[in-house]
Write a structure and sequence with these properties.
The complex is a heterodimer of chains A (about 260) and B (about 300). Chain A is built from 8 helices and 9 strands. Chain A is an alpha/beta fold. Chain A starts with 7 loop residues before the first strand and ends in a 6-residue tail after the last helix. Chain B is built from 12 helices and no strands. The chains are: A alpha/beta (about 260), B mainly alpha (about 300).
Chain lengths: ~260, ~300
């Protein structure tokens, strides 16, 4: 269990987001209340359309809420974005195909206006962090899907944010690669003490990674359960066989079911 | 043994010829040449038979064919006449001579390239404006499209006359007509290219709170490069057309267009045809040069041409 007296990174109260579409307004997020403390690993889980990605995009200031309160590092999301308070990993790697691995990771550093030496140093360090040494000069199309996603993680880390937002980063990968990257991600989280927010629709992935699981349901998108995980911070894939793991998985599944998310 | 191997090689050769590119191309060329020679006899025979009858000369089919392929001012010259003319005006004449086709090609190429440079610049600037300023998108785009509905042959003499009154003569007015033709595909291609980054790639820039200038230089511009080159290939070819058209109605004495016009004044069909051949070779060389640049640029950025 992470220490609950540490700093609040994200504070959301009574937040609503309504999309005005052509036929009818869509209530994407309804009365969201959420607190995330520094160093937590928080998963948003729920079926498609439950607003989990939208909620993360609100935190990242890529969407503007209709009403309610939200602060990121004590600032508005817009201020936090301008201060580059977070790194964002998208569902797809979103690498620029005309840049090599190295230059893709350098992209945010160029935009931040770091010196050439700083750029080089940070790029090398983050390539090593995701075990991609030797692939610096390769273009994205020369890499497998898993490697591409690792490049995009290295790119997000190179900004050196305290907060990492990850939107189904391993959704498109096969299960073996996914397990492997999940383990690597946990090690990284443990080593860097970053706060991670992770969107997924896989129950085992959410339970394996998280210190806090936020269960969501659609129409309107709302939080139906928040589970503080009792699993230790250091875990291996074997933990998935333990009774505690299965118990938490069960509670997540119950939550998803009570949200009537499988009715249609 | 030897004959066996020779026998088994024969079909391989035929197969390779059949499946290769050059065999079909040469077959078409061969058929065209035959049609051309037959056509030359057919087109030129009326005037020859007329001559024979007025001179009360006995004539045979063989005589007619030979004469039809070697007239001084034929209606349709035979291919070897054009080749001889090309040889004389390209290789034998000094390139400073007014009768050298190399000299005239150079004149046309300079205004083609200048017009291409102007057109690329204008096309790219318009595209950047259209993509970034919504007002320009709505106000400029219809005009850009309307500009191409005006026949260039109608507007070219007016441009030359108006610019001549303003004291602009020679290369620049011709280049402006090339520019008028070739900015259009560049604007269209470039607008598409600058808008090609997907939402994810743009969102990424927003998470870094990148400035509009950074988004342009680091995302939109590099993403547009393959589109730009596709447009440039079209643009350089029609820039050459523009340069030749600009030389036609203006009484120009230099350039391939002037050669075409002079040829038609004096019924010098061989001269017209050799100028045409020179123009198409130039066109191919220019497009090839753009394609080569494209390959170099795209391979350096790990991409292939679209």
């Amino acid at each position: 269990m992470p220490d609950t007296t540490t700093n609040t990174v994200i504070e959301i109260e009574k937040l609503n987001l309504i999309f005005q579409t052509a036929d009818a307004p869509v209530h994407a997020l309804s009365d969201i209340d959420l607190h995330v403390n520094s160093g937590e690993f928080v998963s948003f889980i729920g079926p498609s359309g439950c607003g989990k990605t939208t909620l993360m995009r609100v935190i990242a200031d890529l969407e503007t809420p209709t009403n309610g309160h939200i602060s990121v590092n004590g600032m508005t999301p817009a201020e936090a974005r301008q201060k580059r308070a977070y790194g964002y990993v998208f569902q797809a790697p979103a690498l620029y195909p005309w840049r090599t691995v190295e230059r893709n990771i350098r992209l945010p550093l160029e935009i931040m206006g770091l010196t050439n030496d700083q750029q080089k140093e940070r790029t090398a360090r983050n390539i090593a962090m995701v075990n991609l040494q030797g692939f610096e000069k390769k273009f994205p199309w020369q890499l497998s899907g898993g490697m591409q996603q690792r490049v995009s993680i290295a790119r997000a880390l190179s900004v050196e944010p305290d907060l990492l937002l990850m939107d189904e980063p391993f959704g498109a990968l096969d299960e073996i690669t996914r397990d492997h990257l999940n383990e690597q991600l946990l090690k990284l989280w443990d080593a860097t003490k970053k706060t991670v927010i992770f969107v997924t629709h896989s129950i085992p992935e959410a339970v394996f990674l998280s210190s806090k699981i936020v269960v969501m349901s659609p129409r309107p998108g709302k939080i139906i359960d928040i589970i503080d995980s009792s699993l230790p911070r250091e875990r291996t894939l074997d933990i998935r066989e333990t009774p505690e793991f299965l118990e938490i998985s069960h509670r997540v599944r119950e939550g998803l079911r009570s949200g009537h998310s499988y009715d249609d | 043994m030897m004959t066996d191997r020779g026998g088994s090689r024969q079909p391989d050769l035929w197969r390779r010829l059949y499946e290769g590119k050059s065999f079909p191309v040469f077959t078409v060329l061969f058929v065209l040449l035959i049609l051309w020679y037959v056509g030359a006899v057919y087109m030129n025979s009326d005037r020859l038979i007329d001559q024979y009858e007025r001179g009360k000369v006995e004539w045979s089919w063989q005589q007619l064919t030979e004469d039809a392929w070697s007239m001084e001012r034929p209606i349709l010259p035979a291919p070897q006449q054009i080749i001889i003319e090309l040889h004389e005006t390209v290789i034998d004449k000094k390139i400073t001579s007014k009768r050298s086709l190399v000299y005239h090609s150079w004149v046309t190429i300079s205004s083609t390239l200048l017009g291409f440079a102007f057109g690329s610049l204008l096309g790219i600037l318009l595209a950047v404006g259209i993509v970034h300023v919504e007002t320009l998108d709505r106000s400029l785009m219809p005009w850009v499209i309307a500009s191409q509905t005006i026949p260039i042959l109608a507007i070219a003499p007016m441009i030359i006359v108006v610019l001549g009154h303003l004291g602009l003569t020679g290369l620049v007015p011709k280049a402006l007509i090339s520019m008028y033709l070739c900015f259009f595909p560049i604007t269209i291609g470039m607008v598409k290219g600058l808008r090609s980054p997907d939402i994810l790639q743009l969102d990424l820039m927003n998470t870094y709170s990148a400035s509009p200038a950074q988004i342009f230089w680091k995302l939109r511009l590099p993403a547009s490069v393959p589109f730009l080159f596709a447009s440039l290939k079209v643009a350089i070819a029609i820039s050459l057309v523009g340069a030749i058209v600009a030389e036609l109605p203006t009484g120009a004495v230099e350039g391939l267009g002037a050669r075409l016009l002079a040829g038609s004044y004096y019924g010098q069909t061989i001269q017209i045809w050799s100028a045409l051949v020179a123009a198409s070779i130039l066109g191919m060389l220019l497009v090839w040069a753009v394609t080569l640049t494209e390959k170099l640029v795209l391979s350096r950025t790990g991409r292939e041409a679209v």
